């Protein structure tokens, strides 16, 4: 099959193959077709000189809210992904079983970027989240809809990758961990992983971790006090280490209130890296402090993570959490998504959710996006 597109001469960093080399990447039929030096172009092949850039597998943002127009916190997926180099946006619980059909028809299916979803166990998902209204959808147990959540998740396995629940003082109020237990029943019923949000106690960080199974995701994993994974002495809580040992995954989910430099410094100093880096982008954090996926990745680069590890946390690791191994890789036969980035040098101001600022000397910038083997942005 002749190549549709060749990205020529970029520095290819693909952690799924432990690859870091200057080479070409070719696409055909919507998939990655070949990687190698001086790949031959056919008469109809589009060739792009990307020698100034780094080529990675298409970035996966494991925590977004992109039910634009259907929920007050939703942002436009295509606009966000163009600017942030994201080719797969994973919506985490914006919709529940009562409104997933609208999300699918009006947002996901027309989208040029891939949108996958964790389905909320609450009937209408995250329905009361705006500048003026803050209603924790898990406070009211009458909104828990496990029967229909299982039915909708089962009927939409092409898009639904897991079950979402939010617990904590702001999300579940006096219901505590009960919504988490209900969501776990649904996840067990449909054989899918669960993603759990955590905010202020109750329940405690430790209580939530104790319930999670191998392959389940704890998002907001590097959140500030209270409910932080680090001790006051700067060590990692033993319950956190035990959870990772049994296969629980730790996701950043930066957002408006869920990432602190102090926590991250302690965790990284102990060698505890996040499994996945995600933005938790929504209407209340897109103008700061999260901004986008590449800014969130940049914070970890400036805090000492190596670039291939940062890329892995937004590509292959996220694909494995989704159980979609065809994503997050440039292996031939994989989905034909790629992101072009550059790492700029300078003085850059970064902020966390508690107001601390960090001056970093590097910034990851999105320079181009390939989706389904076609150059998508910028023109």
How would you explain this protein's 3D organization?
There is one protein chain. It is globular, with a radius of gyration of 20 Å. Strands 1, 2, 3, 4, 5, 15, 16 and 17 form an eight-stranded mixed β-sheet that branches. Strands 6-7-8-11-12-13-14 form a seven-stranded parallel β-sheet, with helices on both faces. With 379 residues, the chain is an alpha/beta fold. The protein contains eleven helices and 17 strands. The model has no long low-confidence stretch (mean pLDDT 97). α3 (146-155) runs parallel beside α5 (178-190). The chain has helices at 77-84, 100-108, 146-155, 169-172, 178-190, 205-211, 238-245, 261-269, 293-302, 307-312, 316-322; strands at 5-14, 19-28, 31-36, 46-49, 54-57, 59-64, 86-92, 114-120, 128-129, 134-135, 160-167, 194-198, 217-218, 249-250, 338-351, 357-371, 374-377. Residues 54-351 form the Amidohydrolase-related domain. Pfam families: Amidohydro_1 (PF01979). InterPro entries: Amidohydro-rel, Deacetylase_Atu3266-like, Metal-dep_hydrolase_composite, Metal_Hydrolase.
Summarize the structure.
With 379 residues, the protein is of the alpha/beta class. It has helices at 77-84, 100-108, 146-155, 169-172, 178-190, 205-211, 238-245, 261-269, 293-302, 307-312, 316-322, and strands at residues 5-14, 19-28, 31-36, 46-49, 54-57, 59-64, 86-92, 114-120, 128-129, 134-135, 160-167, 194-198, 217-218, 249-250, 338-351, 357-371, 374-377.
């Amino acid at each position: 099959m002749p190549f549709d597109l060749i990205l020529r001469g970029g520095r290819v960093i693909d952690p799924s193959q432990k690859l870091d080399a200057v080479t070409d990447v070719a696409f055909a039929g919507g998939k990655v077709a070949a990687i190698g030096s001086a790949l031959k172009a056919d008469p109809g092949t589009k060739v792009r000189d990307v020698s100034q850039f780094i080529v990675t597998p298409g970035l996966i943002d494991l925590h977004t809210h992109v039910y634009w127009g259907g929920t007050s916190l939703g942002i436009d997926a295509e606009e966000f992904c163009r600017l942030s180099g994201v080719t797969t946006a994973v919506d985490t619980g914006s919709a529940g079983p009562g409104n997933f059909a609208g999300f699918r028809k009006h947002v996901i299916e027309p989208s040029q970027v891939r949108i996958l979803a964790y389905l909320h166990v609450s009937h209408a998902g995250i329905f009361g989240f705006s500048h003026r209204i803050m209603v924790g959808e898990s406070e009211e147990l009458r909104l828990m809809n496990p029967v229909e959540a299982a039915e909708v998740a089962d009927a939409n396995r092409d898009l639904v990758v897991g079950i979402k629940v939010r617990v904590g003082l702001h999300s579940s109020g006096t219901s505590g961990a009960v919504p988490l237990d209900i969501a776990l029943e649904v996840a067990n019923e449909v054989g899918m992983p669960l993603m759990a949000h955590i905010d202020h106690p109750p329940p405690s960080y430790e209580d939530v971790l104790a319930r999670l199974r191998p392959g389940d995701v704890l998002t907001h994993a590097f959140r500030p006090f209270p409910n932080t994974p680090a001790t006051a002495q700067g060590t990692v809580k033993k319950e956190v280490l035990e959870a990772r040992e049994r296969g629980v995954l730790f996701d950043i989910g930066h957002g408006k209130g869920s990432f602190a430099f102090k926590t991250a410094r302690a965790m990284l100093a102990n060698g505890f890296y996040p499994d996945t880096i995600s933005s938790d982008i929504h209407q209340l954090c897109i103008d700061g402090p999260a901004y986008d996926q590449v800014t969130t990745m940049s914070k970890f680069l400036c805090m000492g993570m190596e670039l291939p590890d940062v890329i892995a946390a937004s590509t292959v690791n996220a694909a494995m959490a989704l159980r979609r191994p065809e994503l997050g890789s440039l292996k031939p036969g994989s989905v034909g998504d790629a992101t072009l980035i550059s790492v700029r040098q300078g003085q850059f101001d970064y902020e966390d959710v508690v107001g601390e600022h960090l001056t970093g000397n590097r910034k990851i910038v999105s320079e181009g996006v390939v989706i389904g083997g076609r150059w998508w942005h910028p023109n």
